[in-house]
Amino acid sequence: xxxxxxxxxxxxxxxxxxxxxxxxxxxxxxxxxxxxxxxxxxxxxxxxxxxxxxxxxxxxxxxxxxxxxxxxxxxxxxxxxxxxxxxxxxxxxxxxxxxxxxxxxxxxxxxxxxxxxxxxxxxxxxxxxxxxxxxxxxxxxxxxxxxxxxxxxxxxxxxxxxxxxxxxxxxxxxxxxxxxxxxxxxxxxxxxxxxxxxxxxxxxxxxxxxx
Length: 211
Ligand SMILES: [Zn+2]
Description:
211 residues, alpha/beta, two-stranded antiparallel ribbon, binds zinc ion
């Protein structure tokens, strides 16, 4: 179940509570290691223009959900709650949260990739941020190499470029696209499901990629 600990726009936020609660109950059945009750903190941070929603695994017991009150397609916005909660819950399970870092660029690649594959496999949506199907493979390879060599300090300063929009490369969501591509490669190579990766750390995923 969920426990609301803060409203940002109470009137808007309340319309999404039921979907958040149902989604969290559902994901708990798939991922038994999740806390039985999760705190929901409504905010206005990181809203994706395509869905009017933002999610953030703030800590091992709190997920931040941001809802754009002006987003026109309310049905789409409600539908996108479930994949958002599934994605953030996967981060909580993997302990990839705002308070449990810092995480390297490669950790970000792998954990974002796994959460994005999880929501795709279990909610049936290719999110725009994880959709690498139209990205030439040589670009994915090149960005992966670059991310491998970014120091923690540089990543801390430039993570917005790599995660959301890189002004020089002119590409959105590089970390997510590369991570989703890598996760799919690992799953395909070892004939595994995303649930079988849920207890694995990023370095284990990277060794599966090479093995
Ligand atoms: Zn994420």
